[in-house]
């Protein structure tokens, strides 16, 4: 398990998230970055173990979020990512979760939400677990300085 502060881990992770998002034609409605509790190797809960979670809500103005997610699936497969979930929903939505092998980061893109299943996107991005060199982590929303 690598050692980083939550701020360091988030600052390193966000450019990778932005790279994934740059391939999508969406309008962002919200983006949240959090430090969440992680389990230790023995399943224990410790105050110094965390992962970075990024949640995004967005909208494809062209009502084409499902084809965009399908294109991400094709790219990630071609790049050798581990596809953990890829399914098409009855309402036309698509769910995709993949792990980037080089980093262990996990990316989830989900569509099919009311009232506009062709447009709405919920995306979740997670790092692997880290140990904070500072000890106890202040879990919750992270506020990073602007870049």
Please summarize what this structure is:
With 147 residues, the chain is α+β, with helices and mostly antiparallel strands.
Describe this structure in words.
- This protein is an alpha+beta fold and 147 residues long.
- It has a single domain, classed as TBP-like (2-Layer Sandwich), CATH 3.30.2030.
- Helix content is 21%, strand content 41%.
- It has helices spanning 6-22, 65-78; strands at residues 2-3, 27-39, 45-59, 82-88, 94-99, 106-111, 120-126, 130-131, 140-141.
- Strands 1, 2, 3, 4, 5, 6, 7, 8 and 9 form a 9-stranded mixed beta sheet that branches.
- The model has no long low-confidence stretch (mean pLDDT 94).
The CATH topology annotation reads as TBP-like
- N→C terminal distance: 27 Å
Count of DSSP strands = 9
* Percentage of residues assigned to helices: 10-25%
Shape designation: globular
Main sheet specs:
9 strands, mixed
Our count of helices gives 2
Look at the helices and sheets and give the structural class. Answer: alpha+beta
CATH C-level category: Alpha Beta
Q: Which CATH-level-2 architecture?
A: 2-Layer Sandwich
Low-confidence stretches: none
Give the amount of beta strand, in percent.
Answer: 35-45%
Write down the secondary-structure element order: EHEEHEEEEEE
Average of the residue pLDDT scores = 94
Domains, number? 1
Radius of gyration: 16 Å
């Amino acid at each position: 398990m690598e050692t980083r502060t939550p701020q360091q881990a988030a600052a390193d992770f966000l450019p990778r998230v932005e790279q994934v998002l740059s391939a999508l034609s969406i309008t962002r409605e919200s983006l949240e970055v959090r430090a969440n509790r992680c389990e230790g190797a023995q399943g224990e809960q410790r105050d110094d173990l965390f992962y970075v979670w990024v949640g995004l809500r967005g909208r494809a103005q062209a009502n084409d979020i499902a084809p965009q997610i399908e294109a991400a699936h094709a790219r990630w497969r071609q790049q050798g990512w581990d596809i953990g979930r890829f399914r098409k929903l009855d309402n036309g939505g698509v769910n995709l979760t993949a792990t980037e092998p080089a980093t262990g980061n996990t990316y989830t893109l989900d569509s099919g939400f009311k009232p506009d299943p062709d447009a709405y996107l919920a995306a979740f991005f997670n790092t692997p677990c880290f140990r904070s060199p500072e000890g106890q982590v202040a879990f919750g929303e992270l506020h990073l300085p602007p870049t």
